[in-house]
Write a structure and sequence with these properties.
single chain, about 190 residues, alpha/beta, Conserved hypothetical protein from pyrococcus furiosus pfu- 392566-001, ParB domain, Arc Repressor Mutant, subunit A, 2 domains, five-stranded mixed β-sheet, about 15% strand
């Protein structure tokens, strides 16, 4: 974030230790439970055949490597049973969040995942308008309408989102429509949907 440089050390985590010796930063926007084999189908075949070719980035937190960039690669390594290359450095929370944003350029977090972040932001800021202004100030151009749609999508149960091959398969617009149907349904109808 400050334009400086930091030293990193390359560490290879053997396949059998990836799940125990690494974790995804709680500052990461992506919902790790949604990273199923179906949701990772764009990178999993390559990881199975060639391994993880680009190291993830992490910091050491009490002996566990906290992944700041590369949660999808970590999940793919776990599913494929391959070693995980990790660049480990001393990172601040601000740097972890910046790396998370950069890593999401390949595949943006789903509207459901963004809705979770936007809901927290709206609650913290006090209004949708203030949240929109805050996001613009930090370089994220998103309209109030899109924020509202993502929040409506987030209000859907995670079980509905998990029914999609990839959480990104449900657009914010369709998520909002489905969220409205969900909100207007009876308890019996909601149970039937789940």
């Amino acid at each position: 974030p400050n334009g400086g440089t930091k030293p990193f050390k390359l560490v290879i985590i053997p396949a059998e230790h990836v799940e125990k010796k690494t974790m995804v930063s709680p500052l990461n926007e992506r919902d790790q439970h949604l990273l199923t084999e179906r949701a990772l189908s764009d990178i999993l075949p390559s990881v199975r055949q060639y391994g993880v070719s680009e190291p993830v980035m992490a910091r050491d937190v009490n002996g566990v490597l906290e992944i700041a960039k590369g949660s999808r690669r970590r999940a793919s390594a776990i599913h494929a049973g391959v070693d995980l290359p990790v660049l480990v450095g001393e990172l601040t929370d601000e740097e972890v969040m910046a790396l998370d944003r950069v890593s999401n350029y390949h595949l943006q977090p789903s509207p459901w995942e963004r809705g979770r972040r936007y809901k927290k932001l709206v609650d913290r800021c006090g209004s949708l308008r203030k949240a929109e202004m805050y996001l613009a100030d930090v370089g994220e151009k998103v309209s109030r309408r899109d924020i509202s749609r993502c929040i409506a999508t987030y209000l859907l149960p995670v079980e509905i989102i998990a029914a999609f091959d990839c959480p990104n398969d449900l657009s914010a617009r369709a998520g909002e429509d489905l969220g409205n149907l969900w909100a207007s349904g009876t308890d019996e109808l909601r149970e039937a949907w789940l």
